[in-house]
Design brief:
It contains three helices and nine strands, in the order ββββαββαβββα. It has one domain. Helix content is 33%, strand content 28%. It is α+β, with helices and mostly antiparallel strands. A seven-stranded antiparallel sheet has the order 1-9-8-7-2-3-4, with helices on one face. Strands 5-6 form a two-stranded antiparallel ribbon.
């Protein structure tokens, strides 16, 4: 991971605020500059659906291939006209999740997936991803590390409490 600074830098930038991780299902709010409120999500599938709908409405990044269904039909999306910014980048960067905050910048949508970079704001670390699946793995791995650190702090705290109660 490389250091990048705290910025959004793209009209389709997303701030993902993860509030909790319940047995592998993350929950929180997703923010983009065209909505005044956060959009709640429950799971990675929700994140992808919400973001994909946003990208389609914005018309950016351009979709390299259309969505297909089981019958082979391809769905074409039209850019939503009249979208106006409702939140500045600085306001979006003030949002934070209890477990972690990620800035997602999808630069391309090729081969029916996403390519771009993600920044973990708490550590100011940025890494490029080559697919939506790789993005999920990066976020999930980061949240696993956060949980392990929190579990370690809890164990140390309990151990100190036990030692203090024996001494007292």
């Amino acid at each position: 991971m490389e250091q990048s600074g705290r910025y959004i830098g793209a009209p389709n930038g997303i701030v993902l605020c993860v509030g909790r991780n319940d047995r592998g299902t993350i929950e929180g709010s997703l923010y983009h500059g065209y909505s005044e409120e956060g959009i709640p999500f429950c799971g990675y599938e929700d994140i992808i659906r919400i973001a994909e709908d946003f990208f389609n409405a914005l018309g950016f990044p351009h979709m390299g291939t259309g969505d297909r269904d089981i019958h082979g039909h391809i769905r074409d999306y039209r850019k939503k006209e009249g979208m106006t910014r409702a939140m500045k980048d600085e306001e979006m960067l003030e949002k934070h999740g209890d477990m972690g905050t990620f800035v997602i910048r999808v630069q391309h949508r090729q081969h029916s997936s996403w390519q771009g970079r993600v920044t973990y704001l708490e550590k100011d670390k940025t890494v490029y991803f080559r697919s939506a699946l790789e993005l999920i793995k990066i976020i999930d791995g980061t949240l696993d590390e956060v949980e392990q650190i929190e579990e370690g702090k809890t164990k140390i705290s309990k151990k100190l409490q036990n030692e203090e109660s024996r001494e007292g």
